[in-house]
Amino acid sequence: MRFDIMTLFPELVTGILEESIIGRAQKSGVIEVEAHNIRDYSEDKHHRVDDTPYGGGKGMLMMAPPICRCHSAILEKNTEDGKEIKRKTIYMSPQGQVLTQKKAQELASYDQLILLCGHYEGVDYRVIEEIVDEEISIGDYVLTGGELPACILVDCVARLVDGVLADKECFEKESHSDGLLEYPQYTRPFEFHGRTVPEVLISGHHENIEKWREEKALELTRQKRPDLLDKKGEQGS
Ligand code: 4FV
User: Fold this and answer.
1) 25: Cβ–Cβ under 8 A, 6 or more apart, which residues?
2) Which ligand 1 atom minimizes the distance to the CA of 139?
3) DSSP letters along 158-189, please?
4) In 3-state terms, what secondary structure has residue 126?
């Protein structure tokens, strides 16, 4: 799977995504991540990429021409003759649907995701009309740039790609994977500050352990995120 990220701050993106699990997945070739500097596609002698909004108003807006030239270059570079590439262009935006694990699972089925990171007040609306397939938000709040949202999307989608995590089981039964929060987890030492690990977890009785985990997942969800239970009930699952 390939991620192409259009941004004014490529180092911000590569810096985060070259570390740890996602970094190792890139080195092993399981995923590819490339950041593209939109400023490289400005044909203005001052390399302008933003300007004031028509009609007045605060702040600066990213201009359409450099973004669309950058997008075209990505498409041209990644058109494998004959092979149909399943790709989507996503604008990280507070106006989008909020990213969920379910959406991440859907996005993990694509061959290529092209992510547009806004900055300042956002982008010229014609960019959204012309190249954006979907707007996705990481939450109902406003940031200074779309780079962190893009890294969050890459992280939560890439980890679902075969070969990124050591074991597929890592993302089965985790929070939100089945509409519930994950059960409590423990590791050594057995006793910590007078608190011990629940006995069932060292019983070796796998059926009882599974039962305890299901009960705890339901209990924690009811306690911390009852809204998820309502949603699960609505979906009848
Ligand atoms: C955002 C979010 C977000 C808005 C103006 C970048 C900023 C600037 N992106 N989820 N929430 N973006 O606040 O994705 O362009």
Assistant:
1) 31, 158, 161, 163, 164
2) 11
3) HTTSTTTSS-GGGGSSSTTTSSSPPPP---S-
4) helix
β-bridge mates for residue 37, sequence order: 7
- Choose which residue among 58, 93, 119, 153 to substitute to test ligand 1 binding: the one with the highest number of ligand atoms within 8 A of its C-beta: 93
What lines the ligand 1 site, CB under 6 Å?
A: 92-94, 118-119, 122, 137-139, 141-143, 145-146, 149
Nearest C-alpha neighbor of 74 from the set 2, 123, 11: 2
Residue that has been written with the tokens 């009848």 in this structure: 236
State how far the Cα of 95 lies from the Cα of 97, in Å rounded to an integer. Answer: 7
pTM (2 decimals)?
0.92
Q: How far is the CA of 136 from the centre of ligand 1 (A)?
A: 9
Name, in order, each residue with C-beta under 8 angstroms of 18's C-beta and a sequence gap of 6 or more.
Answer: 26
Q: Higher confidence at residue 61 or residue 232?
A: 61
- Taking only the tens place, the pLDDT of each residue in 63-95 is 999 999 999 999 999 776 778 899 999 999 999
167 Cα: distance to centroid of ligand 1 (angstroms): 33
CA 60 to centroid of ligand 1, rounded, Å: 14
Report helix, strand or coil for 58. coil
